[in-house]
Design goal:
Number of helices of chain B: 6
Order of helices and strands of chain A: HHHHHHHH
Largest interface: A-B, 43 and 33 residues
Oligomer: heterodimer
Distance between the termini of chain B: 70 Å
Structural class of chain A: mainly alpha
Helix content of chain A: over 70%
Distance between the termini of chain A: 74 Å
Mean pLDDT of chain A: 83
Radius of gyration of chain A: 20 Å
Number of helices of chain A: 8
Low-confidence stretches of chain A: 1-13
Mean pLDDT of chain B: 71
Largest sheet of chain A: none
Strand order of the largest sheet of chain B: 2-3-1-4
Order of helices and strands of chain B: HHEHEHHEHE
Chain lengths: 181, 206
C-alpha cells in the first residue's frame, strides 16, 4: 500500500529512463561487435538468411529485455549465443509443422543462388544429418572458434559433455562423408 | 587437424561468407528509442534508383507525349507485358515495406502476403481506380537487372529480396489531366499509412 506508492515515486520514471539508456547503449555495442558473427552462426543452423536475421534480432531483443535483471553482465555474450542457438532450434522445429514453410531453401542447397560448391554442400548436408547437439558442438567449436568451456556455456551442458560430443560428432561426420563417395 | 575437420571448417566459413558485413540489418531491440546507426545503404540506393528509373522513363516519354501523339510507350520502362497502358501516363506507385526500408512504419519487416493482399483490395475497391498492376520482387529485380546490365558491380550488390514489391495504379479519366491528378492524390491519401505500405509516389506528368 504505502510501500507501493513510495516505490512508485516520480523519480522512478527518470531512473527507468536512465536504465533504458544504459541497456540500449550496452546492447547496441554488443550488437555492433557480434551481430555479423551470430547471424552467420544462425545461418549455418537454419539455412536461410531471413530466418537467421530474425533469430539474431529476437536474441538481442531478449537480451535487451533481460538487461536490467542481469546480475553478471560479462555473461551477456554467452546469453545471446545461447539465445541464438535456442531460437535456431525453435525455428527448425517450427518448420516441421504443416503450413509453416515460408522460407528460402538453405544457402548450401542446389537451388540457392549462393555458390559454395559441391564439396562444401556435401559437408553441410552431412552436418545437418547429425543429432542436434553434435551439430551445435561442431559449429561452435569449428566455426565460432569457441573454447570447450565457452561452448559448454553456450550450449548449457557440462565441459565433459562438450568434449565427448565433439569427438563423437567428428567421427560421425567423417563416416557420413565417406558414405557419399 | 584431420581431413574431416579441415573440410568442415572450410565449408562453414564458406556459408558464413555468404553473409557480408553490409548485410547485417540495424538492431531492432530499442527501435522506438533511438539507434539507427547501421543501415543497409545499398538496397536503399537500389530502391531509390528503381523509383528514379520509373520516374525518369516517365519524364522522358512525357516529353514525347507533350507533342500530339498519345500512343508512344517506352518499352524499356514497361512494367509487365500484359498491360496495355503506357507506363508513362500519370499513375501511382505504391511501394510495399521491405526489411531494409528506412520507414519506421515498416518496423524492419517485409510486407506480409496478407498485407499486400489487403492493400490490393483496398485499391481495387476505389471507384476512381481503373486498373491495378502488381509487381513482385522477382519482376522488380528483372527490371533492375535489365536496366543496369552493363554495370555489373552495382547490379551484383542487389538481391531480388532487396527490391520492394509494388502496386502500380491507374486512375480513371484518361485525357483529363486535372481529374487524373486529383484521382492520383486521392489514391495516395487512401493507402498512405496502411500496414505494409512504405512509400506512395505519383509518377508521370499531368
Amino acid at each position: 500500500m504505502n510501500a507501493d506508492t513510495a516505490l512508485a515515486e516520480p523519480r522512478a520514471g527518470t531512473r527507468a529512463d536512465a536504465a533504458d539508456e544504459d541497456a540500449s547503449a550496452a546492447v547496441t555495442d554488443l550488437y555492433r561487435g557480434h551481430a555479423l558473427g551470430l547471424t552467420r552462426l544462425a545461418l549455418i543452423m537454419v539455412g536461410d538468411r531471413g530466418t537467421a536475421e530474425d533469430v539474431v534480432q529476437d536474441a538481442f531483443a531478449g537480451l535487451y529485455a533481460a538487461w536490467p535483471r542481469m546480475r553478471d553482465r560479462d555473461k551477456a555474450l554467452t546469453y545471446v549465443r545461447s539465445a541464438v542457438l535456442n531460437r535456431s532450434r525453435t525455428a527448425l522445429l517450427r518448420r516441421r509443422r504443416p503450413f509453416r514453410t515460408l522460407h528460402q531453401p538453405p544457402v548450401w542447397s542446389a537451388e540457392s543462388e549462393a555458390m559454395i560448391g559441391e564439396d562444401r554442400r556435401e559437408v553441410l548436408a552431412a552436418l545437418h544429418r547429425l543429432p542436434r547437439r553434435q551439430r551445435e558442438a561442431l559449429v561452435l567449436r569449428y566455426y565460432g572458434n569457441l573454447s570447450e568451456a565457452e561452448t559448454a556455456e553456450a550450449m548449457g551442458v557440462a565441459l565433459g559433455t562438450v568434449k565427448s560430443t565433439t569427438s563423437r560428432a567428428l567421427t560421425a561426420l567423417g563416416r557420413l562423408l565417406e558414405e557419399e563417395k | 587437424m584431420n581431413r574431416t575437420e579441415e573440410r568442415l571448417k572450410d565449408a562453414l566459413d564458406a556459408v558464413g561468407e555468404t553473409l557480408r558485413p553490409g548485410d547485417v540489418p540495424p538492431p531492432r531491440f530499442a527501435e522506438r528509442r533511438r539507434t539507427r546507426t547501421f543501415r543497409r545503404i545499398v538496397p536503399m540506393v537500389a530502391a531509390a534508383a528503381v523509383v528514379a528509373v520509373a520516374a525518369g522513363g516517365a519524364a522522358l516519354a512525357g516529353g514525347v507525349l507533350d507533342g500530339t501523339d498519345g500512343a508512344a510507350a517506352s518499352p524499356a520502362a514497361s512494367p509487365s507485358p500484359s498491360t496495355v497502358r503506357a507506363p508513362t501516363s500519370v499513375h501511382v506507385s505504391v511501394y510495399l515495406c521491405t526489411r531494409t526500408s528506412s520507414n519506421e512504419a515498416c518496423r524492419g519487416r517485409d510486407a506480409t502476403p496478407r498485407e499486400a493482399q489487403m492493400i490490393g483490395k483496398r485499391l481495387e475497391a476505389m471507384s476512381i481506380v481503373e486498373h491495378v498492376d502488381f509487381e513482385s520482387r522477382m519482376e522488380a529485380y528483372e527490371r533492375w537487372r535489365k536496366r543496369f546490365a552493363s554495370e555489373t558491380e552495382f547490379e551484383m550488390s542487389v538481391r531480388a529480396g532487396d527490391l520492394p514489391e509494388m502496386y502500380r495504379v491507374w486512375v480513371r479519366g484518361a485525357g483529363n489531366d486535372a481529374a487524373v491528378r486529383k484521382g492520383a492524390v486521392a489514391v495516395r491519401r487512401a493507402v498512405t499509412g496502411l500496414p505494409g505500405v512504405d512509400q506512395v509516389v505519383i509518377e508521370g506528368k499531368g
